[in-house]
Each structure stands twice: as structure tokens, then as C-alpha cells.
């Protein structure tokens, strides 16, 4: 096999690592360099050092000083017990609760509730764990002042950060609106130029369609977004345009047919059915005090200022 | 009927027929059906005066009467027809666009007289037309032309006979079913060599049949048959127009012409108020398309496909024979239109973010606030405010679903939803209120400048007489000078104000028309199912 020589060292290295770990397992009090060397003489120093360094950097073993003053390697306990060694039961408990909450995090009140500890105690423990970089606090978008705790190395869930539309915990309303408008302009322009082609009606409609991928490319090229948006993000924006009633969506089978869902979402600009309705073309339609307006009342059509303005009197 | 609509009724009566009529009309509106003597007593007027006004109302189809259980005749105000008086310009304009000037004048005459004899109205219209023709130096026309228009209007059911109701017969109301053809049957008419309608000598001769209908076993006398405008038919036409216009705006003019043709074809075949029209075939549609539209066969096919694929779902293909059978879903069209009008109000009143939220609710029915925020991508705080504002003004409603019987807020879901019918009703109210406001404002404006307006009228009258007596220009000029430039600008301003208010009333009526037709259909639908 041509590839054999290349893969061999890797296989060997991995093998060495697993054997070191097995050794550590066998000796919970720790293993010294000498023990390792004795156990597997077939590896040279260089190989051993690389393997140990890798294990150390990936956090699977620890380098500790034993009571006799020797350096020993010990298995890093993947569970709480090993990590919070030297701390008391309560800390373990709190750590466990936070761990269980996964990347959604947990609110301090719920920690208290689950652990049955006093607020001051919980606060102290949380501070402790935080300073050890075992856990972190993340601001949630669900409620302005709500902080949730989760393990330090976790990437917070979308429901906590809010995804692309949040910076810190603020909803980027303006950003959404800018994208909404850009997408709209793009589709409107497309529909207009389709109209000018004067081709037959169906071809004309088809020319006004744009897929979500087209839109995504357009928006990416515009460079208005600091962060990388996904096609799904753009689809969410396009959905707002549908809700605005300015755009309609059609789903068609993808040409070629294979690959992901086999569907393309197409969007196009649609003109409104009617001009502004009659009621809104005179002041009474949008009048805030119309409920209190009647003949002879304090607010009345004959004295109304909105009417006067509208009629240019 | 609502207070605001009653108010509009009252204002219209006052404006068009004066305060006495208003008083009687109001009393009828307030008290519901009541007998003559009671009514006279209630308003404190002489019996004769009340009787006279009632006759007048009946003549204009504004009051209905019925024998109650104890055998009294009771009079009832017909609210809708009264309100529809502000639609007159629309009916008249519609007749003009469909059948030309003569039809316009016919409808105008019939509307302003309520119920008329055919001979009278044909003669009057012929005279009016000829007068105008004479002035512009064109040859006069014969009454025959006008009579033909009259027949066209009756054939397409835009005008109809009044059902004769005699108080003496046992059951005092004879309600003829409206598809009864005899209602639209036009008797023939004697027209003399000069193109004039032959006058009958006197009314006592009218019991002798002057003309007999040749067809049908009933003998029809021309005399004594009164004609009126069939407002319902006009409304159906308006309804179709509105749907056509909507698709013209959404797709394009030509697509709407295809739809218009479809509606015209199925008009005669479908029952009035059917939610879906009788299917028509592609061949029929293509042949009936007006040549001016200039559509080829394949393009017409394409337009039909576009119409069928449109999200409003107004047109649908229901079969394959005859090159494809197509029908128009009137009800769906009305739903789309009603939504569009309501959305337009939301947009103008609350802004575009609110419209987005409103439409999310329209499409997704019941939603929690969090879901609304996510779908509409509106920040929580803003969404809360918007929802509250729309809730307070009854554009959205809330359903509470509690997990526990105590309805504790923490264990209750609050689902927001839009009840389209409810919103439509509420907006109709608002429209009537706005309409009343416009009427009041116009009345106030004319009152304020009464003296000036009177003066103008006098001056105009003098000028007219001067013209007749053949006075010279200088004299006329002198009279004209009586209105100072300042007064003239004021008069122009008043005129402009009134025009603007008039226009606002007509536009309000457009909104009312769509919303009411939608509700009418919805109620019919729910009755059926
Ligand atoms: S008349 Fe003036 S105060 Fe009254 S409802 Fe209209 S706009 Fe409002």
C-alpha cells in the first residue's frame, strides 16, 4: 500500500496515547515518566514527549507533583469530581446543575431552586467557578436582565444569543430593516425590468423571480453585513417581506433534481391590489380622537383642526 | 343598523328633503315600524303632512309598509336604500359607461323620481337630449333610440318593474322572486312620426289596456307599470368591477380584461350572489374577448394560467373540455379585497411594522407574542406595544387558554388572532362615522356662506333672464360686477371644499361597499354550510 508509510506514524502515535491513558487508568495515583518508559520501551523519547504534550494540551491528563516530589501524570477526570477536586460538595452540585443545562444555560434562580442553597452561597460558588474558568455567564436575549450560566467551553444556543440578528443581547432592528429594504429594492427592480421586456406574460412573470440564493449572493456582495449571513437568514428576511405583503413566494423543484431538498424558493415583487382605501383618504380615518367626536361636542367635525388642515381652510 | 349609519341617514334626509322629512325619518328609524296615526302623534305634525311625506318616501323606495298582525299598516324606514342615495352618482356614471348618454339620463331620471312610468321617462329623456343636441347644432333623435336603451337596461336587469302592492288584498305584500322574468319585461311603445311618445289622454282611461304584450299569457298594460332602478344589479356590477380592478392592479390591464370577459359571460348563467360563477370554456372566453384588447390565442391561454396561479385564487380551472373550463370565485375575490382594505387601514393608522404583525396574524391565525416577534422580526418591546395598540382599537383579539382552572396569568397562554369579520364590521362603523362627519362639515360650510351662495344664485338668475330677453353685454357685465373679486375667491373656495368632501364621501362609500359585500357573502356562506 502506497499510503502505508505515511499513516504508520500516526497510528503509532495514537496507539501510544491510548496506552498512556490506559496506564494512567491502572494507576490512579499517577504515573511517572519512568513507568511509561518501562511499560513501552519500543517508543523513543521524542515520540513519548509528543504524545504526552498532546494529551496535556487536549486536557486529557494533568501534570502534577506527587507527595514524593516527583512529577507524575494523572488522568484528568472528565467528570465534575475530578475538575472541582479540592472544592466542596456544594460546588460540585452547582457545577453538575449547570452542566446539565447544556448550551441553553440556566438562570441563577433555577440553580438556587434545584440546589436548595442560599442565594449568597450560590453567588459565591458561581463566582468561584467563574474565576476558575469552569463556567461562564451569558446574557440572554429572552429577557434584558437575565443572565444564564453554562460550561465555559460551550457555544451558547441560538435561543440565548438570538442568532445573527442580535449583537450582545440587543435585537438589531435597524439591521433587519435595512436588509428588508435592500431585498425589496432588488426584487422590485427585477420586476420592473421584467415588465419592460414586453415579452409574453408568463415569461415576464418568470423573469421577475429571484431565488433565495440569488438574494443571498446579492446581499453578501453589497457588504452591508459585518457578520456572515446564511441563506436561511436571508430567507427569514424575505419572509418579513411576504408578511409585509410586498413579495410572494413560490416553491419549485430544482433543475437537476438531486441534492438537498430538491426545491428552490423563488420570490417576486407583487403590486398591491388596491390604492389606499377610501376611509384613509380623509382625516377621520386615522383620527386618534374619533371616538369622542360628535356634533356639538368638545371635539366636533365643524371645529376639527384636522378637517380644516385637510380642506386648506 | 348602527348609530353611525342612522346618523348618516338622518343627515342625508335633511340635506336632500328638508327638516320635516328628517324628523319623520328619524322617528321611524328610532321607533322601528309604526302605523301612520301613531307616527303623526309622535312627531307632532298634522296627519296630512305626515301622509304626504310618507307617500314621498314610498315613491322613492325609502319606506316599506306591511300589515302587522292586528291588521294595521305599519311603515318602516329602509335604511340601506336611504344610505345608497349617496351612491347615485356612481349608478349614473355606471349606466353611462355601459350604455351611453341616453342610458345615463334614463337612470338619472328614474333615480331622482324613485318610480316612474316608462312613457314619461322616455319622453323626458328624449326632450333633454334633444335640447342639448339643438344647442350644439346637431340633428335631433327619436324617442325610439331612448326606448331601445330602456329595453337594454331592462334586459340586463339594471331597471325593473315595481312590484305592485295593494293594501286591500289579503296579504298586503307580494314579493316576486327577483329572477322572475316578467319583472324585466318591457311593453312596446307607441312612437309617432315625429319621434315623440304618444301621450295618453287622461288617467281615467288608463284602465283600458293601450297595448297588450304579445308574448306570455299575462296581459301587460303599459299604464300603471312603474319602473325603478334595480340597485342590487348595480351592486353586483360594482362588485365585479372591484375584483377586475384589483387584478388589473396586481397583474396587468390585459389580465383584467380576460377576467372581465369571464364575468360578463357567466353573469347571465350564474345565480346572483353565487359564491362561484358557472364555469365557462376557454373557447367562449377567447371568442368573447373584445378585439381592442388584442390578445392572441396563446397569450390568452397564458393570462388564464397566470390568473389561476395567482395567490388570490380568484380564477380556477375546473375542467378540460372546450379548451379548459374556468370559473371565478367571487367570494375569494371579496375576501382578498376586504383584507386589502383592512390592511390599508392598518398600514395608514399604525405603520408598516404593525401591518407586518397584522398580516402574520391573518395568515397564521392564533399565535403567541413570542412567535409573532420571531416571524415578523420585530423586537419584543415594540411588538408588545404594537399588539397592545391594535388590541385596544379592536383590530386584533386575544384568546386566553389556561392550563389551570383558576386562570392564573402565569399559567395561561395568550393567543393573538384577527377576526376579519369583526374588524370589517368595526371599520364599517368608522366609515359611517366619517361619512357623517363629512356631511356635517359640508352642511356647516354651506350654512356659513349661505348669504354669499344665495347672492350668487340671484345673480345667476338675473343673468339668465337677461340672456333670454336679449340684453346687451354691458348690462350683463354690470350684473356680474355685483359679486366682488373677494367674494368670488370665497365662492371658489367653498366650492372646492364641497367638492373635496363630496369626493371623500364617494371614496368612503367604496370602502363601505366592499366591506359590506364581504360581510353579506360571509353570512350567506355560513348560512349555507
Ligand atoms: S372630524 Fe376631526 S376630530 Fe372628528 S373624527 Fe374626523 S378628524 Fe377626528
Give a short overview.
With 313 residues, chain A is an alpha+beta fold.
Topology:
The complex is a heterodimer of chains A (313) and B (529).
Chain A: H1 4-26, H2 33-39, H3 45-57, E1 61-65, E2 71-75, H4 80-83, H5 89-100, E3 106-107, H6 108-115, H7 119-131, E4 135-139, E5 147-151, H8 158-161, E6 166-167, E7 170-171, H9 173-196, H10 201-207, E8 210-211, H11 212-222, H12 231-244, E9 247-253, E10 263-269, H13 305-310
Antiparallel strand pairs in A: 1-2, 3-5, 4-5, 6-7, 8-10, 9-10
Helix pairs in contact in A: 1-3, 5-7, 9-10, 9-12, 11-12
Chain B: H1 3-17, H2 19-31, E1 34-35, H3 36-43, H4 47-59, E2 63-67, E3 73-77, H5 79-83, H6 88-99, H7 101-113, E4 116-117, H8 118-135, H9 143-155, E5 159-161, E6 226-229, H10 231-250, H11 253-267, E7 280-281, H12 282-288, H13 297-309, E8 315-319, E9 325-328, H14 330-350, H15 352-364, H16 369-376, H17 380-392, E10 397-402, E11 412-417, H18 420-448, H19 450-469, H20 473-480, H21 485-528
Antiparallel strand pairs in B: 1-3, 2-3, 4-6, 5-6, 7-9, 8-9, 10-11
The complex binds iron/sulfur cluster (SF4).
The site of iron/sulfur cluster has 11 residues of chain A, from helix 13.
Characterise the protein shown here.
Chain A: It holds the Pfam family RNA_pol_Rpc34. Chain A: One of its GO terms (biological process) is transcription by RNA polymerase III. The complex is a heterodimer of chains A (313) and B (529). Chain A contains 13 helices and 10 strands. Chain A has 313 residues and is of the alpha+beta class. In chain A, strand 4 (135-139) and strand 5 form a beta hairpin. In chain A, helix 9 packs antiparallel against helix 10 (201-207) and helix 11 crosses helix 12 (231-244). The model of chain A is unreliable at 1-9 and 80-86 (pLDDT under 50). Chain B has 529 residues and is mainly alpha-helical. Helix content of chain B is 61%, strand content 8%. Chain B has helices spanning 3-17, 19-31, 36-43, 47-59, 79-83, 88-99, 101-113, 118-135, 143-155, 231-250, 253-267, 282-288, 297-309, 330-350, 352-364, 369-376, 380-392, 420-448, 450-469, 473-480, 485-528; strands spanning 34-35, 63-67, 73-77, 116-117, 159-161, 226-229, 280-281, 315-319, 325-328, 397-402, 412-417. In chain B, helix 19 runs antiparallel to helix 20 (473-480). Mean pLDDT of chain B is 82; it is low at 166-178 and 200-221. Chains A and B meet through helix 10 and helix 12 of A and helix 10, helix 13, helix 14, helix 15 and helix 18 of B. Residues 283-284, 287, 289-290, 293, 299, 301, 304, 306-307 of chain A line the site of iron/sulfur cluster.
Amino acid at each position: 500500500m502506497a499510503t502505508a508509510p505515511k499513516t504508520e506514524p500516526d497510528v503509532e502515535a495514537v496507539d501510544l496515547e491510548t496506552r498512556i491513558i490506559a496506564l494512567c487508568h491502572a494507576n490512579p495515583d499517577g504515573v511517572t515518566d519512568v513507568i511509561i518508559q518501562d511499560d513501552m520501551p519500543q517508543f523513543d523519547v521524542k515520540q513519548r514527549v509528543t504524545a504526552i504534550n498532546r494529551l496535556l494540551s487536549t486536557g486529557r491528563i494533568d501534570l502534577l507533583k506527587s507527595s514524593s516530589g516527583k512529577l507524575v501524570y494523572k488522568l484528568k477526570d472528565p467528570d465534575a469530581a475530578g475538575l472541582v477536586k479540592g472544592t466542596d460538595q456544594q460546588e460540585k452540585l452547582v457545577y453538575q446543575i449547570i452542566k446539565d443545562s447544556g448550551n441553553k444555560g440556566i438562570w441563577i434562580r433555577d440553580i438556587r431552586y434545584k440546589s436548595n442553597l442560599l442565594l449568597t452561597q450560590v453567588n459565591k460558588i458561581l463566582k468561584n467557578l467563574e474565576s476558575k474558568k469552569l463556567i461562564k455567564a451569558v446574557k440572554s436575549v429572552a429577557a434584558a436582565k437575565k443572565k444564564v450560566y453554562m460550561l465555559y467551553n460551550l457555544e451558547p444556543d441560538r435561543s440565548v444569543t438570538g442568532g445573527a440578528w442580535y449583537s450582545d443581547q440587543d435585537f438589531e432592528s435597524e439591521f433587519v430593516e435595512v436588509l428588508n429594504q435592500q431585498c425589496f429594492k432588488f426584487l422590485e427592480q427585477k420586476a420592473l425590468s421584467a415588465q419592460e421586456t414586453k415579452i409574453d406574460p408568463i415569461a415576464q412573470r418568470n423573469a421577475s423571480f429571484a431565488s433565495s440564493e440569488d438574494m443571498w449572493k446579492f446581499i453578501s456582495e453589497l457588504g452591508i453585513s459585518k457578520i456572515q449571513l446564511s441563506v436561511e437568514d436571508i430567507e427569514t428576511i424575505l419572509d418579513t417581506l411576504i408578511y409585509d405583503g410586498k413579495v410572494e413566494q413560490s416553491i419549485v423543484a430544482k433543475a437537476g433534481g438531486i441534492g438537498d431538498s430538491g426545491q428552490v424558493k423563488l420570490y417576486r415583487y407583487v403590486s398591491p391590489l388596491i390604492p389606499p382605501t377610501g376611509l384613509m383618504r380623509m382625516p377621520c380615518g386615522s383620527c386618534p380622537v374619533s371616538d369622542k367626536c360628535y356634533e356639538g361636542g368638545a371635539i366636533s367635525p365643524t371645529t376639527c383642526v384636522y378637517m380644516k388642515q385637510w380642506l386648506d381652510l | 343598523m348602527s348609530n353611525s349609519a342612522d346618523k348618516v341617514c338622518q343627515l342625508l334626509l335633511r340635506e336632500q328633503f328638508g327638516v320635516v322629512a328628517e324628523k319623520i325619518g328619524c322617528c321611524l328609524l328610532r321607533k322601528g315600524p309604526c302605523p301612520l296615526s301613531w307616527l303623526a302623534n309622535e312627531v307632532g305634525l298634522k296627519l296630512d303632512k305626515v301622509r304626504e311625506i310618507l307617500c314621498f318616501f314610498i315613491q322613492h323606495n325609502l319606506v316599506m309598509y306591511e300589515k302587522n298582525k292586528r291588521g294595521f299598516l305599519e311603515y318602516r324606514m329602509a335604511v340601506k336604500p336611504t344610505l345608497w342615495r349617496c351612491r347615485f352618482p356612481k349608478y349614473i356614471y355606471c349606466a353611462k359607461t355601459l350604455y351611453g348618454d341616453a342610458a345615463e339620463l334614463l337612470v338619472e331620471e328614474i333615480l331622482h323620481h324613485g318610480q316612474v312610468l316608462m312613457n314619461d321617462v322616455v319622453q323626458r329623456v328624449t326632450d333633454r337630449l334633444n335640447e342639448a343636441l339643438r344647442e350644439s347644432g346637431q340633428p335631433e333623435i327619436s324617442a325610439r333610440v331612448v326606448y331601445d336603451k330602456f329595453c337594454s337596461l331592462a334586459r340586463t336587469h339594471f331597471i325593473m318593474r315595481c312590484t305592485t302592492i295593494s293594501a286591500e288584498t289579503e296579504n298586503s305584500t307580494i314579493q316576486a322572486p327577483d329572477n322572475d322574468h316578467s319583472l324585466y319585461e318591457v311593453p312596446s311603445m307607441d312612437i309617432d312620426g315625429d319621434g315623440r311618445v304618444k301621450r295618453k289622454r287622461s288617467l281615467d282611461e288608463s284602465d283600458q289596456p293601450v297595448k297588450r304584450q304579445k308574448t306570455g299569457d299575462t296581459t301587460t298594460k303599459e299604464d300603471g307599470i312603474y319602473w325603478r332602478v334595480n340597485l342590487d344589479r348595480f351592486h353586483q356590477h360594482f362588485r365585479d368591477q372591484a375584483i377586475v380592478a384589483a387584478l388589473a392592479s396586481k397583474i396587468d390591464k390585459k389580465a383584467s380584461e380576460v377576467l372581465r370577459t369571464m364575468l360578463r359571460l357567466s353573469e347571465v348563467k350564474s345565480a346572483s350572489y353565487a359564491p362561484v360563477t358557472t364555469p365557462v370554456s376557454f373557447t367562449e372566453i377567447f371568442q368573447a374577448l373584445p378585439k381592442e384588447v388584442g390578445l392572441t390565442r396563446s397569450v390568452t391561454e397564458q393570462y388564464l394560467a397566470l390568473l389561476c396561479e395567482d395567490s388570490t385564487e380568484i380564477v380556477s380551472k375546473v375542467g378540460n373540455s372546450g379548451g379548459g373550463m374556468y370559473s371565478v370565485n367571487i367570494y375569494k375575490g371579496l375576501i382578498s379585497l376586504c383584507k386589502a382594505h383592512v390592511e390599508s387601514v392598518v398600514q395608514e393608522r399604525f405603520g408598516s411594522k404593525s401591518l407586518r404583525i397584522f398580516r402574520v396574524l391573518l395568515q397564521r391565525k392564533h399565535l403567541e407574542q413570542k412567535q409573532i416577534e420571531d416571524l415578523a422580526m420585530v423586537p419584543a418591546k415594540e411588538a408588545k406595544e404594537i399588539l397592545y395598540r391594535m388590541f385596544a382599537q379592536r383590530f386584533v383579539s386575544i384568546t386566553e387558554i389556561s392550563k389551570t382552572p383558576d386562570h392564573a396569568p402565569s399559567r395561561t397562554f395568550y393567543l393573538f388572532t384577527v377576526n376579519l369579520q369583526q374588524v370589517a364590521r368595526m371599520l364599517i362603523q368608522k366609515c359611517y362615522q366619517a361619512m357623517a362627519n363629512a356631511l356635517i362639515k359640508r352642511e356647516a360650510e354651506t350654512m356659513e356662506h349661505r348669504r354669499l351662495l344665495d347672492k350668487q344664485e340671484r345673480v345667476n338668475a338675473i343673468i339668465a333672464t337677461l340672456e333670454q330677453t336679449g340684453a346687451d353685454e354691458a348690462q350683463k357685465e354690470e350684473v356680474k360686477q355685483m359679486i366682488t373679486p373677494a367674494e368670488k375667491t370665497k365662492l371658489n373656495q367653498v366650492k372646492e371644499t364641497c367638492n373635496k368632501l363630496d369626493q371623500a364621501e364617494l371614496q368612503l362609500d367604496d370602502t363601505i361597499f366592499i366591506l359590506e359585500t364581504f360581510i353579506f357573502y360571509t353570512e350567506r356562506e355560513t348560512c349555507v354550510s
